[in-house]
Structures are given as structure tokens and as C-alpha cells.
Write a structure and sequence with these properties.
This protein is an alpha/beta fold. The protein folds into three domains: about 240 residues, 4-Layer Sandwich (Glutamine Phosphoribosylpyrophosphate, subunit 1, domain 1); about 190 residues, Glucose-6-phosphate isomerase like protein, domain 1 (Rossmann fold, 3-Layer(aba) Sandwich); about 140 residues, Rossmann fold (3-Layer(aba) Sandwich), CATH 3.40.50.10490. The chain is built from 19 helices and 25 strands. The strands form four sheets. An eight-stranded antiparallel beta sheet has the order 3-4-2-5-1-11-10-12, with helices on one face. Strands 6-7-8-9-13-14-15 form a seven-stranded antiparallel beta sheet. A five-stranded parallel beta sheet has the order 17-16-18-19-20, with helices on both faces. Strand 8 and strand 9 form a beta hairpin. Helix 14 packs antiparallel against helix 15. The radius of gyration is 26 Å and the shape is globular. The model has no long low-confidence stretch (mean pLDDT about 95). The protein binds fructose -6-phosphate (F6R). Fructose -6-phosphate (F6R) binds next to helix 10 and helix 17.
């Protein structure tokens, strides 16, 4: 959510433009850059000169900013840039970062939210403000409280802030430096010969040596040099800071979109996840028997797709006789906490940066629960916050709509459920069997020729105004994730419903123009769902049925006969159809599936 990139060294403007481009998946409402320069530019609606600093900004995707920045000869050794996902104020030029102080001597880019910004704003002159953002308040405070020493001014201002932030700041009071501060929003810094760099995303930074900045720390970047300070401004030996393994950037290659590429990668991603935990000893090292054999209850928490993966996880643990609950992180955080004994709290997050999930984790930790993170991103914030961590190994996921990461989260839950069974009953055979089965499913997805039927179904539904998705048990969980996928990139209203619940109100919305996807894969409850399908057909709703079973009601609009597999694996298998249908539908509607409107890849604000 929002991206920060700053660079000191030759061609800093180019490096920052490339950097924010790599971060664009995190937000793309508007973008901007601040350049330290003694040569003022011709001012226009996009360009504003400060004192030794010029900002250039534009609305929309970074390509819009690129057009106006790269058209000019911009030479500078110091630049900071930002790609925005709007939280305060519309995505227009004024609200775009970087923000200048009134005297033009400070420029700041920010990720996070300053919760007390209105209160702080009241203490400043209202004439100074050009934007509606929380960030501009910080720029004006830096000017107001400047005490002759830049770093101690930044520290003093930070102490007055409530909320979360990662800041990159430049100032003409102290040229050729970038100042960085962090509180509850991730930021990494790096350096090499003749350059240094700051970035809000571990996977998008380029640098020879990369270090993580912890909450409350400050960093000062210079050409080829980096200094880090603790919250009392005592310098920290950077050799003692955690160095970060560089993650390779992902290239789009021959694919049209990351989403398409990432759906294609699902079988290989599942195989990678399974390989990592194929030997039970690996999990025994991460989750030692002694500490986990007494676990009686599991609580799974996440947001969006990650929450949906947790819902499937819940059913898998329940199958093993373990009491399990799931919760949406933003809800869980603010409801009364019920004391739980022998409970493991599992937090699912692809990015490992989701503010609500991390907030819920911290709460559980405070209440004495063991915490386990399931994440895709090495060194992400959640990996430091949790007691234990399991990686999904899906590979980088750039498309905003989560696909392969979801499948790998499910793979981890399949394995974990059998691991807890092994801890309880010593049943290694069932664990090994699970590994084999998951490999089979990965192969089945790989060779399942479903592109034609998915594109045909997308054709069928893409003009619909409203779609419903129904199922019972695990089939309802399929419907939940499928409906999120479809709505987030097609913008078609789509709701998931437990099949048996439809008649308690929502069925009144079904008419001859309504498509209803129905998932029927669980033998025990199939007749019940077929009954609910009949109720929809009776109201002329158009059923699109996914099932391995013979269907008694020939009046469905479309039927996708899926192969017979063990029932518990249908969420992993069938979601692939719905990911593809969503992708094709977005294309038919002219939407960019990689950058759905109003969304961002990692949600680092509450
Ligand atoms: C939907 C999607 C979101 C995320 C949610 C949590 O396709 O990607 O619903 O699943 O924002 O994100 P993570 O998993 O990074 O915590």
C-alpha cells in the first residue's frame, strides 16, 4: 500500500522512477518525485519549486509521471519518489507525495497513517496547507520545529505522531542526504559503492547490501554510506543489523499479465510448497513436538483471500478433531478477547505486511498465545512479529488479486492438519500420504485443460449485473474465494452464500437475469445442495454447476463436470477455474487485472 523509493548517487531520478515502477503494484492512484536541485524548473500544475527542492507529480499510473519527468533533463544526485494508494484526500496532484513544507526546504514521502494529524494540524497555520493529506502535516511540522539539527528535528516530530509511518525525507538544510524513520510500516535501506537507497518493499529494492530498519530507528543515507540510529539517536553498528537476502525480481516474460502468469505457476508453486515440508522433520524443527503436542485449539486469522484460505484450514483441522475458529483480523482486534488455553494462533498473510493481521498477532502474543505466521515473503514484518513462521514458497506474487499464494496457503494447511494429527497420534503414514496427494493434485491442475471452458463462461457472464455463488461446507469456502476474485477484478457485484441460507432472504434477488455458480463436491451434502439448486432454477436463475456428480436437474444453464478426486482437495483444484474465469472476465470488460481499481497489493493501513 503506497510505495517509497529514494536514491542517492548518479542518475538518481532514473533510479527512483525505476524503483517506484517496481512498487506500482502497491498503489497506483498517483505518483510523484522530489529532486534536490539548485536549478528551479518551469512551474506548472505538476511541478512545484521549493527551496533547493523541486517536486513533480501526476495523477494515475506511473507512466503518466514518467512522461513529464523523462521529457526533461533532470540531473540530480538525490531524489525520493512515491506511488500512492489514497487514504486521505482524493487521488489528485495536490494530494500526491512528495509533500513540501511551506518554506520549501523539506520534502517528505510517507507510507502509513498519522492518526492524530487533525489535532496536529490545528497547531499549524492553515494557510500553509495545499493538500488534504496527513503527510503534509509532518512536512509543516519539520519546518516549524527545526532546531538546527535535522536528525533531532525528525526525531522530535516523530515523537508527536500517533499511527504508523515509514518516511523518506530530504531537506536543503542538509543536502546530499536522505533521512529515514520507521514506526509500524516496513522500510529497508541499502548501499553499495557510490550510492545508497531506501525502499518500502524488501522485494523491490536494488542494492549490494540491504538492511532492515526496525521500529523507532532512524537511518541517514549518503552516497555509498549508511548510518543507523536508535530511538535515542545513538548510532548503531550496521554490522549488527539483520542483513537481508536479496529476492530476485520477477519478470513478466511472454505473459500479458502477472495474474495470468501467476495462475499458470500454480502447479509448480504447490510443488515447491510441498517439497519444502515433504519430510516431517522439517516441520518438527519449526514446530517442535514438545511445544506443540498439547495444542488443543487453533485460531486462524487473516484478511481477504488469506482469511478465505484460513476458512478451508479450519475445516481441515476440524476433520482431525481439533477445535478451530477463524476470524477476520480487523474484526478480531477490536472485539473482547476470550481467554484461551493451549491455543495456537495462526496468521495468514501473503505479503506479511497487512496491518490488521499484524495487529491481531501482537494482541494474541500479548495475551500469551503461541503465534505462527504463514507467509510468502521472507523477512516481511510478520516473520519478525510471530513466534514461529512457515513460508508458502509461492514465489513473488505481483498481480494484486492473489492466486498462486492462495493455493500455496491451502497446501500449507493440508500439510499442517496432518502434522497436528501426527503430533497427536504419531500417524506418519497419513502425513506422507498427504504429501503424495498434494503432488497429484498439482499435476492434475497442470494438465487440466480448462482454459476453453473458462473463457466461454467468462463470455457468458461478463455482462451480468449481479452474480451469486453457492455451496455448502468446503464448497461454500470455494464460493467465498471465487466471488472475491471475480468482483475485485471484474467489478461485477458478486456474493457468496451458503447454499442452505439463500432461501432465508437472498433468494428474492434471483430472477431470470441472475447467474448462480453452484459448487457441489461433497458427497454427504450433495443432495441438499442439489435441492437448493432446484430452488434457484424454479426462480429462473441461471445455474453454472461445478461438480463431479451426475446432476439430476437438467435445467442448469452450464455444467462443468470436474474430475473425481478426494473431496478435501476440491478447494485447491476448483478455484483454478474461477481464477481463470475472473481473469478472462476482467479482460472482456477492458479492466487491467493486475491493477484493479482502488486496490493495492499490500494493505499496510488499518
Ligand atoms: C485478494 C487479495 C486480498 C489479500 C488481503 C490480505 O485477491 O489479495 O484480499 O488477500 O489484502 O493480504 P495479505 O495476504 O498480504 O495479508
Amino acid at each position: 500500500m503506497c510505495g517509497i523509493y529514494g536514491y542517492i548517487g548518479e542518475k538518481s531520478v532514473c533510479e527512483v522512477m525505476k524503483g517506484i515502477k517496481r512498487l506500482e503494484y502497491r498503489g497506483y492512484d498517483s505518483a510523484g518525485i522530489a529532486i534536490q536541485t539548485d536549478l528551479p524548473f518551469a512551474e506548472d500544475g505538476n511541478t512545484r519549486n521549493g527551496d533547493g527542492i523541486t517536486t513533480i507529480k501526476n495523477k494515475g499510473e506511473i507512466s503518466n509521471l514518467e512522461k513529464i519527468v523523462l521529457n526533461r533533463v533532470v540531473k540530480s544526485n538525490v531524489a525520493i519518489g512515491h506511488t500512492r494508494w489514497a487514504t486521505h484526500g482524493q487521488p489528485n496532484i495536490k494530494n500526491s507525495h512528495p509533500h513540501l513544507s511551506h518554506d520549501g526546504k523539506w520534502a517528505i514521502v510517507h507510507n502509513g497513517i498519522i492518526e492524530n494529524y487533525l489535532e496536529l494540524k490545528e497547531q499549524l497555520s492553515s494557510d500553509f496547507f495545499v493538500s488534504e493529506t496527513d503527510t503534509e502535516v509532518v512536512a509543516q511540522m519539520l519546518e516549524k520545529y527545526y532546531n538546527g539539527d535535522v536528525l533531532s528535528t525528525i526525531k522530535m516530530v516523530c515523537e508527536k505522531l500517533k499511527g504508523s509511518y515509514a518516511f523518506a525525507i530530504i531537506t536543503s538544510h542538509c543536502k546530499n542526504k536522505i533521512f529515514v524513520a520507521r514506526q509500524n510500516s516496513p522500510v529497508v535501506v541499502g548501499y553499495g559503492k557510490n550510492y545508497s537507497v531506501v525502499c518500502s518493499d524488501i522485494n523491490s529494492i536494488k542494492g549490494d547490501r540491504i538492511l532492515m530498519i526496525e521500529n523507532g530507528q532512524f537511518a541517514v543515507l549518503e552516497k555509498g554510506k549508511l548510518s543507523v540510529y536508535d530511538n535515542c539517536l545513538k548510532e548503531i553498528d550496521i554490522n549488527e543489523l539483520g542483513e537481508i537476502e536479496k529476492a530476485g525480481g520477477e519478470k513478466l516474460g511472454d505473459y500479458s499479465h502477472y495474474m495470468q502468469k501467476e495462475i499458470e505457476e500454480i502447479p509448480i508453486a504447490i510443488k515447491r510448497t510441498v517439497k519444502a515440508y515433504a519430510n516431517v522433520e522439517t516441520l518438527e524443527k519449526i514446530l517442535p513436538k514438545k511445544r506443540f503436542e498439547k495444542i488443543k485449539n487453533i485460531l486462524i486469522i487473516g484478511c481477504g483471500t488469506a482469511y478465505h484460505a484460513g476458512l478451508v484450514g479450519q475445516r481441515l483441522f476440524e476433520e482431525e478433531g481439533i477445535f478451530c475458529e477463524s476470524a477476520i483480523a480487523s474484526e478480531f482486534r477490536y472485539k473482547p478477547f476470550t481467554e484461551r488455553k493451549n491455543t495456537l494462533a495462526i496468521f495468514v498473510s501473503q505479503s506479511g505486511e497487512t496491518a490488521d493481521t499484524i495487529g491481531a498477532l501482537k494482541l494474541c502474543k500479548q495475551k500469551g498465545l503461541k503465534t505462527l505466521a504463514i507467509t510468502n515473503v521472507k523477512n516481511s514484518s510478520i516473520t519478525f512479529a510471530a513466534d514461529y513462521c512457515i513460508y508458502t514458497n509461492a514465489g513473488s506474487e505481483i498481480g494484486v488479486a492473489s492466486t498462486k499464494a492462495y493455493n500455496c496457503q491451502l497446501a500449507v494447511f493440508y500439510i499442517l492438519s496432518k502434522y497436528f494429527n501426527y503430533l497427536k497420534h504419531g500417524d506418519l503414514k497419513a502425513y506422507d500420504e498427504e504429501i503424495k496427494n498434494l503432488r497429484r493434485i498439482a499435476k492434475l491442475i497442470k494438465y487440466n485443460d480448462n482454459k476453453h471452458i473458462c473463457s466461454k463462461l467468462a463470455q457468458k457472464i461478463h455482462k451480468a449485473r449481479s452474480i451469486y455463488m453457492i455451496g455448502r461446507g468446503l464448497d461454500y469456502n470455494i464460493a467465498q474465494e471465487a466471488s472475491l476474485k471475480l468482483k475485485e477484478i471484474s467489478y461485477i457485484h458478486c456474493e457468496a452464500y451458503p447454499a442452505g441460507e439463500l432461501k432465508h432472504g437472498t433468494i428474492s434477488l434471483i430472477d431470470k437475469n441472475t447467474f448462480v455458480f453452484a459448487f457441489v463436491t461433497q458427497e454427504k451434502i450433495k443432495d441438499k445442495t442439489f435441492g437448493n439448486i432446484n430452488e434457484v432454477v424454479a426462480r429462473e436463475g441461471k445455474i453454472i454447476l461445478f461438480s463431479p456428480f451426475d446432476n439430476a436437474n437438467k435445467k442448469v444453464c452450464e455444467e462443468v463436470k470436474v474430475p473425481k478426486i478426494k473431496e478435501r482437495y476440491y478447494p485447491l483444484f476448483i478455484i483454478n477455474y474461477l481464477q481463470l474465469i475472473s481473469y478472462y472476465t476482467a479482460l472482456l470488460l477492458g479492466n487491467n487485472p493486475d491493477k484493479p481499481r482502488s486496490l493495492a497489493k499490500s494493505v499496510t493501513v488499518e
